Amino acid sequence: ERFEGYYEPNLPYLDRVTFRFLPDPNAQLAALRAGDLDVIGYGLAPENAVALRSDSRFRVVTGGSTVEVVVGLNNSRPPFQDVRVRRAFQHAVNRQELVAGVMLGMGTPIGSHRSPVESCYVDLSGAYPYDPDRARALLREAGYGPGNPLRVTFSLPAPYEYARRLGEAVAAQLEQVGVVVRLEVVEWATWLSRVFRGADYQMTIIGHSEPHDIGIYANPGYYFRYDSPRFRELYARYLRTPDPDKACELMKEMQRLLAQDAVNLWVMNAPYLAAMRKEVMGWWPNQPTPSLNVTRVYLAR
């Protein structure tokens, strides 16, 4: 309901907004086309964005976001406490192919925990070039091979279609270098309690949407279980450095250290995708922080 005491005069424009939760991309598309929805504001599948662009009744918005899609690795448990295994996984995964094939080109490969739309970004997507032979060699160094294949469980959070699709594609690429991957779909409440809070997992995949959140790696208790005194020192210096240029250099150094340690497998920066009836105006085209801000949204007559 519209709040009459809003601090800006004459806002918001709409009297009422109803939010519906439809995780199934096919259900989203059908509801929009049937007129049951005015906007798909979150979770728009790439193929549905392509389909709706050719329909004059609708408008597709493609904008920037701070979402990093991350294959999270539990650095405190086998096999990922061994940096050779983590680096092998980096070389085994073809980020460009994932973006082009799974996301239909809608995304930007990344190689550390920062999005290209944020300040002080370093492009480290080429730090570990796609090289299956190098991946196999690193796995052999770590003690794995045809007679002793590396077996991992990959936990996919159930509500997110992008996580399932990208997770399945990542698993297929890992299997090409001899890794045996068991996929498990985990309900969201279980993922939060077991994976996120309990760190009871080997690898998972999720989008990290908060801007400027590199400080999570300074917390050894965070679900990646990354424990680096060097990173904590850099982050502490960054927080107390008032000079913006010097702080920026520290931010870049932190990104490089995370890539060097191959803490996680950073897949891509996801764009913000939304689709709406052409009458819907005032929708945010970019997401500097995830928010469905409808303050200035209105319907053109």
Automatic annotation (TrEMBL):
Domain Solute-binding protein family positions: 1-208
Keywords, in A-Z order: Signal
Gene source species: Thermus islandicus
Protein name: ABC transporter substrate-binding protein
Matches recorded under Pfam families: SBP_bac_5
Domain of life: Bacteria
InterPro entries: SBP_5, SBP_5_dom
GO biological process, alphabetically ordered: peptide transport
Lineage: Bacteria, Thermotogati, Deinococcota, Deinococci, Thermales
Keyword GTP-binding: no
Gene3D superfamilies noted in UniProt: Dipeptide-binding Protein, Domain 3, Periplasmic binding protein-like II
A molecular function GO annotation: peptide transmembrane transporter activity
Zinc-finger listed as a keyword: no
